[in-house]
């Protein structure tokens, strides 16, 4: 029986299959075993346990050798998530190796270190999909660096800009998230092997050396202070995933807006067989963008819960670790699914320059009001120019006339000797500022990074 959003026949296709494999039960068990094997190898190198026992432990650290169904039943009976695993592991290894498994460690040491391994794998997926999204957006931005469209603030036309400029803002923001995640990776996901409360009481001074060597074998950093009550490192990384999700949702909502029937500036990919409605046959919904917004919401909603679970009693608190042990896989799968869906969305975007030109003309010249104001500053102060154009703009909207006609009718402007080419300042496509230059600079800067 399949239950839950990651497995349901209704929603399973929303989520990254690669990420789900990393966090599957079998993969999680394998990560625990990889940590136990690395611990044994480190202890053998430092003379804590016999080398042949460490080799046996490493050889048997294979999830395919375990009876998962029996583990599930035994965990429920024991009400402990790792002890039944250790019992099967001991049976597989036999004596004397069984006596050296898990030496000096506690359950949360294994779980936290294994999660670090899984998050490193997850990070590589995030990098790949982010890179794909940035590359596709970069190609689209360069292609449309001079494609003029309305810039909007508060849902209203503001100034003309180019589509390339809009996309360059997305690219720049995604690149900042990528840098944040890369900077936090090594410090957020570490190896922890301090024992019951983190003091290395069971192993003494050699325990810290074991932790350092084990971390090296696993490609992780050490924690410094191996406190089970500390979760700020992981939350630091998770907080950046929340920022990334917010940007992804913003992009998704922009696409949904631009695909509105009345706007029509951008549409996402469509194929025959993609259905928008069970009753309205004409519907071509922005389903990928809407899914991206949904995934981003699901991810962002989990960030506060991770932060809350930072608050832990004493030197160990399963009421908090139960939450994070369950929550982190969800966050990881959601994060990869967000960037995977983002990459798919931008890969299929179809641009309509004709709709953009049509929308530029909707306000009958009003979108160029700032351009006119800047032109008038040579004849009067900026403040006076703004005042005069405000009156002309409001008249244009109230009377339903072209902005240029309202300007001509204004008493003050009618008395001025306006230059014959004055009306050129009302051409929206001529007032996009540094849109193209910013687009080129952003694409080149972001894509030159290693």
Structural class: mainly alpha
Query: Helicity, in percent?
Result: 55-70%
Figure out the total of helices. 17
Order of helices and strands: HHHHHHEEHEHEHEHHEHHHHHH
The number of distinct structural domains comes to 2
Largest sheet: 2 strands, antiparallel
CATH class identity of the largest domain: Mainly Alpha
Number of strands: 6
Provide mean pLDDT, rounded. 91
Counting copies of identical and different chains, the oligomeric state is single chain
Shape-level CATH architecture of the largest domain? Up-down Bundle
Low-confidence stretches: none
Q: Report strand order across the widest sheet.
A: 1-2
Cα separation of the termini: 45 Å
Q: What is the rounded Rg? A: 30 Å
Shape from CA axes?
Answer: elongated
**Strand residue content:** under 5%
CATH topology annotation of the largest domain: Fumarase C, Chain A, domain 2
Explain the layout of strands and helices.
Blueprint: H1 17-22, H2 25-45, H3 51-60, H4 68-78, H5 83-93, H6 107-143, E1 148-153, E2 156-162, H7 163-188, E3 190-191, H8 205-218, E4 221-222, H9 232-258, E5 266-267, H10 287-308, H11 318-347, E6 350-351, H12 353-360, H13 369-376, H14 382-399, H15 403-409, H16 411-414, H17 435-447
Parallel strand pairs: 3-4
Antiparallel strand pairs: 1-2, 5-6
Structure characterization notes:
By secondary structure, the chain is mainly alpha-helical. It folds into two domains: 12-356, Fumarase/aspartase (Central domain) (Fumarase C, Chain A, domain 2, Up-down Bundle); 363-432, Ribonucleotide Reductase Protein R1, domain 1. It has helices at residues 17-22, 25-45, 51-60, 68-78, 83-93, 107-143, 163-188, 205-218, 232-258, 287-308, 318-347, 353-360, 369-376, 382-399, 403-409, 411-414, 435-447; strands at residues 148-153, 156-162, 190-191, 221-222, 266-267, 350-351. The strands form three sheets. The chain has a two-stranded antiparallel sheet. Strands 3-4 form a two-stranded parallel ribbon. The longest helix is centred in the N-terminal third of the chain and has 37 residues, at 107-143. The two termini are 45 Å apart.
